[in-house]
UniProtKB/TrEMBL annotation:
Pfam families: NifU_N. NCBIfam families: SUF_scaf_2. This is SUF system NifU family Fe-S cluster assembly protein. PANTHER family: IRON-SULFUR CLUSTER ASSEMBLY ENZYME NIFU HOMOLOG.
Length: 147
């Protein structure tokens, strides 16, 4: 597939998550709630999660922001459901590396829709948009695992 076609496909995936977000809402009885914002652009997120026996059983988000931040939140909440805390944190580390343009082992890990965000690395001003939800998740899970 040509680079131009791949970029178009990735844009379509991002816009699909933005227009049809997965896991949008609040978990009323969630045992973790994290609020974060990006003051430079106004993106904000409230992430709620249920973590039981070291596993993220449920994850939802509310917020407002650009298509990059909201689609990234949608993708992230899908990706971490059912994962052990350490696996979700490892995924966040890999995502962060991807945002910095670093390579990751595609053989070991299928990022699915998340891979559509790799082009954000070319736009340093947008990296904070893409990582906002991931930073919220990391903060919540690190606090939870440190208890």
């Amino acid at each position: 597939m040509s680079s131009n076609n791949l970029d178009t496909l990735y844009r379509q995936v991002i816009m699909d998550h933005y227009k049809n977000p997965r896991n949008k809402g609040i978990i009323e009885d969630g045992n973790l709630t994290i609020n974060m914002n990006n003051p430079t652009c106004g993106d904000r997120i409230q992430l709620t999660m249920n973590v039981e026996d070291g596993i993220v059983s449920e994850s939802k988000f509310e917020g407002e922001g650009c298509s990059i931040s909201m689609s990234s939140a949608s993708m992230m909440t899908q990706a971490i459901k059912g994962k052990k805390i350490e696996d979700a944190l490892k995924l966040a580390e890999i995502f962060s590396d991807m945002m910095l343009g670093k390579d990751y082992d595609e053989e070991d890990l299928d990022l699915g829709d998340i891979e559509a965000l790799q082009g954000v690395a070319k736009f340093p001003a947008r990296i904070k948009c893409a990582t906002l939800a991931w930073k919220a998740m990391e903060k919540g899970l690190k606090d939870e695992s440190g208890k």
